[in-house]
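Quick one: structure tokens for this chain, please?
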Amino acid sequence: MSIVGDKTRLAFEIGAYWKSSKQHQHINVWLAGRHLTAEDDLVYLPSFYTHLEEEIVVVESASWRRTDFAGMSQEEIFRHLENDECHNHRVLRYDATVCRFDSFYFEEGTNGVFLCSTWPPDQEAGHVFGVQISRSEFLSVLKELLSKLSGSWV
């Protein structure tokens, strides 16, 4: 088992392969100290890996992520981003496993912010929570995760 990142901020825990399959692996996600994949941590690696690669490219070129939400609460910002038809700020959507929550990343000035809300059966489903994390820290975690995953699924 290997942990990438900091569980109090953003972290991924890379676990064992499922049974004898090299295409399925246990990967847990934490954001702001919350274990987001407690219900289901099994990912389909070809999808997860490919979407992770794509997200790294998007986050690296993310000048469009700069926004001004001055005076808005976390819940108001989250609902605004959730209703944005182009979903430019949606992150961490790599596989069905990580679809148990919605998360968004945006930058305000020099600060990067993650906002997240979990789905049922989570006891706090619908509650919005967040953490500040710079784009460089976000990218560092994603790139380290990618480097530790196998790209070979045969």
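Helices lie at 45-60, 74-82, 135-148.
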